[in-house]
Every structure is written in structure tokens, then in C-alpha cells.
Write a structure and sequence with these properties.
Strand content: 15-25%
CATH class: Alpha Beta
CATH superfamily: Divalent-metal-dependent TIM barrel enzymes
Number of domains: 1
Order of helices and strands: HEHEHEHEEEHEHEHEEHEHH
Radius of gyration: 18 Å
Structural class: alpha/beta
Oligomer: single chain
Helix content: 25-40%
CATH architecture: Alpha-Beta Barrel
Amino acid sequence: MSSSPFERVLSAPILGLGLGIDIFDDQPDFRVLIDRHRDGFDFLEVYSRGDWEHTDDPFARIPASVPRTYHHEGLDPVGPRICPDDTINGCAKNQRLLNPPWTVEELAVRHIDGKYCDFFFPAILNEECVKATIENLNALHARLPGPLLPENAPYEFSVGDMHLCEFLTRVAHGADCGLVLDLGHLWSWQLCVGKGDTPDHGIDKLDLSRVIEVHLAGARIEKYEGGQIYRDLHGAGPIPEASLYLLRELLPKLSNLRAITIEVEDATEQGAIEQARQVREVVQQIRPAWLEGVHVA
């Protein structure tokens, strides 16, 4: 009997602290980060903007000695139906090129009627969306060579009467998979529902044993009459204190944590390494033994 997606990611080693990079970005250039700052990160999380037609050459430029995970985009797992075949086949191609232990995919929709939208339409938090998401993830796992780790998407508005943490737990158990918990995205939802002052509100509804990877990124908070909105900036902004608070609070409780990724797209070379250092200091203070278990390729 084949292993479940969750069992497959549990068999992966601890990767440590990684940098989330866009393979097509000039800033920061992943080749420069590898050449000049290899001691500043343990692995790379490779994002290709959902592209699979132009990835052969840049993927080949990542040395085999650098562990990697893969961040896809466009499978739209929370949509009413499974995405088109070419998107699935493209993701499968990139998985084979990179051979990552897992692939990250946002719990959001990026395509409407086949057209790309420059906006994450995050999961609707209700029973119908839970059911559709589980069905889509099961169908995707049947066709992809590597397991998916669904990630909570950023929210600028929330639709549905379910707590986000309950939604994530239901999906993880229904599809028998792990999760990526993006701490800034979690806070973005709390801001939407008026719980921004308590970023860990309702965290008891989340099965923390399903969290395989944690994401952190820079952001900007925009205030408007009646509330605040979280704007993802990745490397172009500072990591919010709320995200670091969540990291400090949750780190001791994440029994199956394999990776922490700092998304540094649009950062300067030094900025990317500084954010990695900032996060490493937190981990060293809270859970130093975890870092000691990092797999060395």
C-alpha cells in the first residue's frame, strides 16, 4: 500500500531555515545568494510563478548540494473543480526537475475562466469549500509524483462562518496531508475578523502536528476606516512583529516541523540574509535543538 501524502512528508529530514526565492528574479539573484551567502541559509524554496515552460535552465543552475523545496502556483485547490490538465502536468514536470520532498500550493484561486488574476481569492470558509478542497487535493495527489503541502493564503476579506484554523485542520485530515502555516497570512485573516490584536486567536482549532513548514515574509499594514489590511511584500518589507510573536509562541509546539522559509523575493542581497539571520536568532533562542537536527546534504 502506498504511503499517504502526510506519511511521505514525515519521512523527509529537517531542512532547517530556507530562503524563498523567485527563480526569475534579478533581486535577489539566487545564484549570488548561493555563491556569496551559502552559510546564511540551509535550503531554497523555489518559486517559478506557476511557469513550467521556462524552468529547465534556471532549475539546472541550482547545485545538487543545495536542498530545495518547490512552491507552485495555479493548481487552485479551493476552486469548485480541479484545474486544467496542462497546469497539473506542468507542476509534475517541475517536481521531476527539482525532486523536492514536497510542493507548496496556496489554498486560493488564481485563475477565473482560464485567465490569471493578480489577486489571491482565498478559500471560502464553509463546509462546501472544505469538501471541494479535499476532493481537489486527493485528485491532484493521484496525478502528481510528489506530495503537496497546502498553505493558508493571504486574506484581505473573509467569507464564511468557519475559523481559518478549523478549515485548515479539516482539509489536512480529509486529504491526509501536511500543511504550510504562513504566519503573516494567519495574521492577515485575524485582521479581517477583528482579532488582529491576538494573532493566535483560535489556534487551538489547528492541529499543529500537521504543520510541516512555516512561512515568514515582509509586509505592510494599511489602515482604513474600520480596520487594517495586511499587504504581502515578501523581501521588500520588514517581517511584522505579529509574525515573529506567532513564531515564538508556536515553535515549541510544532512536533513535525521540517522547514522554516523566509520569503525574500524583491529583497536586496543583504536584506535577504539579514532576515534569515533575524529568524535564526529567534529559533536559536526558543528551540535550538531543532536546528541541531538539520540534515546536511
